[in-house]
Amino acid sequence: MKLLKPFIGRYKLDLTVAILMVAIASVAMLLQPTLLSNIVQAITDDNMEKVNKIGAQLLVLAVIGLAAGILNTIFAARASQGISADVRESAYRKIQTFSFSNIEKFSVGNLVVRLTNDVTQIQNVLMLVLQPLMRMPILFIGGFILAVRSIPQLWWIIILMVILVGGISYFVVKNLGKRFGKIQWLMDKVNAKAKENLQGMRVVKSFNQEANEEERFTNVSNELRDVNIQIGYFFAMIMPAFMFVGQGLMVVAIYTVGNMVNTQPELLAQITGFTNYIMIIMNAIIVGGMMMSFATRAFVSMGRIQSIMDTKPTFTYDNENEQDLDGRVEFDDVSFTYQDDDQPTLKHITFKTEPGEMIGIVGATGSGKSTLAQLIPRIYDPSAGTVKVGGVDLKHVNEHSLRETVSFVLQKATLFSGTIADNLRQGMETAQLPDMKRAANIAQAAEFVEQYDDQYEHAVEERSANFSGGQKQRLSIARGVIGQPKILILDDSTSALDARSEKLVKQALDEELSDTTTFIIAEKVSSVINADNILVLDNGEMVAYGPHSELMQTSPVYQEIYATQKAKEAKNNEE
Amino acid sequence: MKNNVKESAKFFAHYLKHFKVALFFILVLTILATWLQVKAPVYMGRSITELSKYLMTYLNPVTKSQASLSDFHQALLLFGLFTLMILISLFLNGLLQAIVAPKSVNDMRTGLFAKLQRMTIRYFDNHQDGEILSRFTSDLDNIFNAMNNALFQILQQVVMFIGVIWMMFNESPKMAMATMATTPLVIIVGIVIMIQAKKYVDIQQAEVGHLNGYINEQINGEKVIITNGLQEDSINGFVEHNEKVRRAMVRSQAWSGVLNPIMQGLGLFNLAIVIFFGAKLALTGDVASRAAGLGLIVTFVSFSQQYFQPISQITSLYNMMQQAMTGVHRLNVIFDQDEEDKHEDGAQFDGVKNNIKLQDVHFGYNEEREIIHGIDIDVEKGEMVALVGPTGSGKTTVMNLLNRFYDVTSGAVLFDDVDVRDMNIKSLRDNVGIVLQESVLFTGTVRDNIVFGKTDATDEEVIDAAKQANIHDFIMTLENGYETEVSDENSVFSTGQKQLLSIARTILTQPDLLILDEATSNVDTVTEEKIQRAMDNVIAGRTSFVIAHRLKTILNADKIVVLKDGRIIEQGNHETLLAQNGFYAELYKNQMVFD
Q1: Do B80 and A251 touch (CB under 8 A)?
Q2: How far is A414 from chain B (nearest CA, A)?
Q3: Inter-chain CB proximity A414 and B220 less than 8 Å
Q4: What is the pTM of this model?
């Protein structure tokens, strides 16, 4: 509830109207049996005047009930959709304040589920609360009052019914909850089995395992069927059980009235009304119980959204003054351990670059290259030591200044749906066509972009499905260089490019961004052989730092990497 | 729409045919229960009438002594008995109904899965897993809901509807007509609302889809957003989508929600018509006696309520049925797909005797675009061939043709001069082992995963295969050893170890011909070395095709086939190819052979 509180205020009017209308509709529903038995009485009494009068009342009641029902639906929809849209928006805003490690902690998929499924749960329940659930207490209390008023002597029947129906409902909700939980679990199992089968279809087929897979799937599926049948049996009992209570008590009520009618003949006329109200009360309890069990699911969802709202970003920025940062990067005894890891990924890294230098970072997979690079744009903060950009410790950097200065091109090229221009403008808000052309030329993207009729306005589809891996990388590099950053980091960003394009990109970077400090992370030593300095990582430690020629003399690790990658002939070629 | 109904009717008829007997009894019990339910109030009414008779007798001093409650008690007892019979018939009916939906949906589910096993790889390559999986989740779910909640509900309401109409006409055709007069209007109103609701529900679904897509894309690209400082832009885009969703949701919920109050209002309105018309009928003396006319109105007041219930109930089930019909259509799309021809009477293949040949093989995944333009490869028994070339050169495609995931467009793949298309596919695949680039684990134990292709393997064989694949030692470090539970998503195995496990899986089946797609994914040096040795073990002594990414594999190959743009441009061993100083030499220098 804490989650919804801030938003309820904005929809006070909608909520009030919705609740008011529910009350009116419920009262109209409660009055209906009385009017009906009155009209039947009037007909038997042959009182046409009264029949017309009550008939008209019945029509008015129908119109009021109809109008109230429609208005309730509309305002309940407005309120519940409004509140849940606001909840979703505020959760999304919160996520955008997160540091990357917050997002990793939740995992991307998990956050998406919370923003979609969980919010949908909340919104369904809100709608439920504003419609049937609100109606139930009114019907229950109203029905109770009217029933007691009609035959006060039978108060005990109503109490007995509340106890019995309440008891059955409790039993049902408790037992069904358990079974529904099992259904959910089995459904997940069925889906997981189907999913892994699809993923491994080639393996299944090449091992001729179709029949065995079918058997495994059928086993799980049969389990699901059996629990579904159990639930079906359960439901087969529930309705008769409720009817047993309702109708049985009706018989008891009529029987009791039969014994009292000698002394209180007026009771006879009330019996039909009384039984009608008993039915209304019973329905109120049953439907109310079912709704409550739905509502409990929403509490789980609310908790999951609340935990997003309660999460504090791992770090925040001092966003007071813009800073003028140059292209220097300095690591001073930097160590870094990922959350949930025991072992540090980076250990005591110290180095310093001058503006305009090109630094190659090499090392085996898992040696910490990407991690090191991600500390420069402050995707993470180091666990120990300091990282400085332009002489400023990143813990005190102005966020906007840092983004202006450092541009990071990810290993996995990520484009957003929209147009090519939209994506390029992400690297430079004010970019005009000449800027885009220049960036695309550096990234060797112009050659395919400019072949489209709509050039830079060409659409990028969802998951950038209309581009090849190499094209995605080139556009991603273009986005990285368009803002003419003082520091550019290419995290293995040319892996999907052919050798020729890769070479051209490197050349263009040299010529066009000569004042930019460039970090190039590469699997292949040959990609960084011309760098001013090469930083060699081994198992999180910096084992060498210097130009190629120097490292070839001094660093055994570098020599080994070089040797394994380039066979002897290539080496001969080089010399 | 009409086709949809026809398609669904056929579909359900197929799955319900096993339940003929149960369905017959369900129908009988439904008719019985409905009849009892309509009749029971009559006995309640009679008991009250008897009570009032008793009261009149009792209150009259003359007859007071004769007053007896026994008639009242008898009527009440009958009401009680009727109620009891209703309960029993409802309960029995419920038990019978409980089986139908779970069983028939289970038949659909397992049938769908079995169908998938028989389909061609082509289908899976061209369709996203999620799209196929949604058949298991949302479509079967919608069908289950409809069968569970709508099927018998509709049956019951239809029986009730017919029963009430029959009884109404028995009582008074004129009054019956009056009661039914507004029905066409009500149905039209109901359908108009449902169509509007459907329209807005569709818009809502589309908008929700866009929003979910947006959230997914943005949060997946969060690193780009953070490093470019795009948080505000991202929020603005979100707000735009979110607002669209909100608007669409309000409309769709309002339209679907108003059906119920409108139906209830119309029901009351209809009741008023019945009362006024009946009163007019009674007053104008059209009916034999005025008293009987008044009695008729009372009867029709309850008929009118019973008559209206099925109409509003069935209309409110419209959405559910609509969704189920969509589900049926989407399932049928799968059921109508081509199946793999297993060629069961084809030639049995029991291993390579002499050689394997690819003769002038042309192939394209679709007709418009050929991607392999006539390649010839000859491999002698026991040789190892390395396929190298840039991405998209057709290496993987060659593998797809060897164990008939796909068939050549022209030319032929020959095993000992027998075309693979003439072979029994099972025998072919029994003898062709593959190790994929991306290893897959199945839910189950480690042992289950190794014996995947040979379920009757002994423990010795399993351990031996694991040892050859260099994964035995690691398995033994696990608390439950070979009985450790694993799954693809939640696994104790790293990418490299998964690959070792899938090598063990292949070794166990002792394939005669091996197709191996080396993983490009980077693993640590220790595992790398283990994989290398495991590969050597599995390749040793076998005829094998390796899509090679490792230098050592290439150097060891008896033959290197260099593919580029679907053509073989060079063929030979490492030394001769290097000496040619052609494309391979260039690739090698730029280390692109590792691509």
Answers
A1: yes
A2: 6
A3: yes
A4: 0.76
